[in-house]
Automatic annotation (TrEMBL):
It comes from the Eukaryota. It comes from Semnornis frantzii. SMART domains: IG, IGv. Residues 7-112, 125-196 form the Ig-like domain. Pfam families: Ig_3, V-set. InterPro entries: Ig-like_dom, Ig-like_dom_sf, Ig-like_fold, Ig_sub, Ig_V-set, VSIG4. The gene is Vsig4_0. This is VSIG4 protein. Gene3D superfamilies: Immunoglobulins. GO terms for molecular function: complement component C3b binding. GO terms for biological process: negative regulation of complement activation, alternative pathway; negative regulation of interleukin-2 production; negative regulation of macrophage activation; negative regulation of T cell proliferation.
Length: 196
């Protein structure tokens, strides 16, 4: 069956994390996607939460503003990505796509995915220390990586120690990289890993 939508029946997400609700089809010549609608049924509210048509993308339920997106440049991929999952996001989500055929007739298909949101036991970040005293020649490329495990998700910050004993914030990524090391890059660097 052409233009069938594919996706799982259940997606499990972690509270405060993100989740992708897959919904995809194989594009067919002579059939143009007319509309895409994602609807939700859960305790808080029900109705259309996202709509895409010829005039643009619309997030229709206020509790999803700035938290949901659908790929724009991936023909056939109309998956819904949800950020900052809350317990209230549990429910049934339906992806409905309508196509217009070359003879102007319309074809519609839909699939429903159940979203389950779980809280995981919180654990403090554990950092695996690297060896001290890294020597790298000037002009070389190198990086320092902060490796930590824990739950919920971890945020990272890299600092360079200053002569006054303070830390100069350099990056908010797990990796601190240099493309072209200079002698002035010598110093003491440290990473902080943090979660709630």
């Amino acid at each position: 069956a052409f233009l069938d939508l594919a996706g799982p029946s259940v997606v499990k997400g972690v509270w405060k994390g993100s989740a992708t609700l897959p919904c995809a089809y194989v594009p067919v010549k002579d059939f143009v996607q007319e509309t895409l609608t994602w609807t939700v049924v859960h305790d808080q509210s029900s109705g259309a939460l996202f709509r895409r048509d010829g005039s643009g993308d619309y997030i229709l339920l206020s509790e999803y503003r700035d938290r949901v997106s659908v790929p724009k440049d991936a023909p056939g991929n109309v998956s819904l990505h949800i950020l900052k999952l809350g317990m209230s996001d549990r429910g049934s989500y339906t992806c409905q796509v309508t196509w217009r055929a070359s003879n102007n007739s319309l074809i519609a298909r839909e699939i429903t995915t159940k979203v389950e949101v779980f809280k995981v036991a919180a654990t403090k970040p554990i950092i695996r220390a690297g060896k001290l005293g890294l020597n790298v020649p000037a002009g070389a490329r190198t990086s320092l990586t902060c490796e930590a495990t824990g739950s919920p998700p971890i945020s990272y910050r890299w600092f360079r120690s200053t002569p006054e004993g303070k830390g100069l914030l350099l990056s908010r990524q797990a990796e601190l990289a240099w493309d072209n090391l200079r002698p002035s890059d010598s110093g003491m660097y440290y990473c902080e890993a943090e979660n709630r």
